[in-house]
Amino acid sequence: MDIVARGIYRINLYRELCKACGLCIAWCPQQVLFPDAQGYPLANAIERCVNCKACERHCPDFAIEVIPPEPESEIADVPSLIHAR
Amino acid sequence: MKLQNSFILREYLRPQAFPTTWCPGCGLGIVMSSIAQAVHFRGLDKNNVAMVSGIGCTGRMSGYADFNTLHTTHGRAPAFATGLKMARPDMSVIVVMGDGDSMSIGGNHLVHAMRRNIGLTAVVVNNAVYGLTGGQSSPTTPVGGRTSTAASGSFERPMNLETLARAAGAAFYARATVNQTAALTRLIERAMGVSGFALVEVVSNCHVLYGRMNELGDASQMMKSMEEQTRRVNPVLLRRAAAPLRLTSAGSPATPVSTATAQGVHQDPRVPRGVIFERHGSRDYSSRYYAMLEQKARARA
After folding, report:
1. Residues of chain A contacting residue B1, judged by C-beta atoms under 8 Å apart
2. Distance separating alpha carbons of residues B192 and B137, to the nearest angstrom
3. CATH number where A25 lies
4. B116 — phi, psi (to 5°)?
5. Are B197 and B122 in contact (CB under 8 A)?
6. Chain A environment of B19 (Cβ under 8 Å)
7. Exposure of B233 in the CB half-sphere (CA atoms within 13 A)
8. Cβ pair B24:A17 closer than 8 A
9. Quick check: is A85 in a domain?
10. In chain B, which among 56-85 make CB contacts under 8 A with chain A?
11. Residues near B4 by Cβ (< 8 Å), separated by ≥ 6?
């Protein structure tokens, strides 16, 4: 039997892309994300994350991503991508 | 399987144009993510993929996606895409349209693209309202839905795109919602492999205009209600309808399973999602056309 290791995932939030729509907070089945005063998500309980990627799938603005220890694809540097002109 | 968002952003989108002009919580970003992932999982080169869009909130998508993109006139995206596909039959052409763009303003062009069965992948994002111009009634506004041009509720019958596609001769029709994102990616991926006109209708949310006027709640509530408003079609029954069950002996009559499963379905108010129909043995118009030219040239020689 595999034991699911908790607390090994990271969540990247890109504040420049986020519009505080609250979809990631609404969809998180593990209550990892909480809204701050402006409605932006905060990964306050990151140790509960199970890498279901529900937040990432439902984010219309590509502003959140869950990073497992071995990601399916590369992680790009988003702030430099946005400002590259 | 889900690609990392930053990877999609770098490889298939134009991050300099971000953040998008769409309202917070709009399902169009999810549709764009699904299209990018479908292109990736099909193993296509993004320089060999074209995205054609019309006008409307959905029309903005061609500005954000890093394929060969065409932002065309209102409703004429299928017409431009037909020309592109005829000139470059090797190219995968994705047409993104809204419900008003595809069914009222460009209804004629959509019907004739389906009639020719030209090899396009059309993604029709259906949010039941004209979003960009301020919430007017669209061809798919449900009866009783309040819009800015029907304040006491629309009393027109909404258009049934599924029946229209079936009658006009489209090769593939699937319906997905922005709620079931993995299914949306898979259906677009499958539609891109169809030879002929493949249409994916995506049920999306306009919580800012339609949702507010009809008190449907915010984006997450509208998306969650799609779960109850749609039902998944059974893919096994769909396969059996294509190849009906037979009794053991070869001469015995085929059991028409397709009619049996249709019983009781019409009473179900929920909209089916999944692959609605697929025309087997369909062949793309552009490949048929070039084959015909070759045949003519050979006959002359």
Report:
1. 72
2. 31
3. 3.30.70.20
4. -75, -20
5. yes
6. 16-17, 19, 61, 63
7. 22
8. no
9. no
10. none
11. A56, A65, A67, A71, A72, A73, A74, A75, A76
Which residues of chain A does B24 touch, with a Cβ-Cβ cutoff of 8 Å?
19-21, 61
Q: How many helices (H) and strands (E) does chain A have?
A: 3, 4
CB contact under 8 A, B19 and A16: yes
CA pair distance B260, B272, nearest whole angstrom: 17
Q: Which member of B2, B7, B218 has the closest CB to residue A57? A: B2
Overall number of domains in chain A: 1
Instruction: Please report which confidence band the pLDDT of residue B69 belongs to, taking 50, 70 and 90 as the band edges.
Output: very high
Q: Phi then psi for B258, rounded to 5 degrees?
A: -60, -40
**β-strands A41-43, A33-35 pairing:** antiparallel
Task: Tell me chain B's radius of gyration from C-alpha atoms.
Answer: 20
Closest CA to B241 of B202, B280, B287: B280
The 10 Å Cβ neighbour count of residue B248 is 5
Report all structural domains of chain B as residue ranges with CATH numbers, in order of start: 5-232+271-300 (3.40.50.970), 240-269 (no CATH)
Asked whether residue A76 is assigned to any structural domain, the reply reads: no
Provide the domain limits for residue A60: 10-69
In a domain? residue A74: no
CA-to-CA distance for B194 and B192, rounded, in angstroms?
6
DSSP string, B141-183: PPTT--BTTBTT---SPPP-HHHHHHHHT-SEEEEEESSSHHH
Interval B98-140: pLDDT, tens: 999 999 999 999 999 999 999 999 999 999 999 899 889 999 9
Here the ipTM equals: 0.90
Distance (Å, whole) CA B27 – CA A21: 11
Radius of gyration for the alpha carbons in chain A, expressed in angstroms and rounded? 13
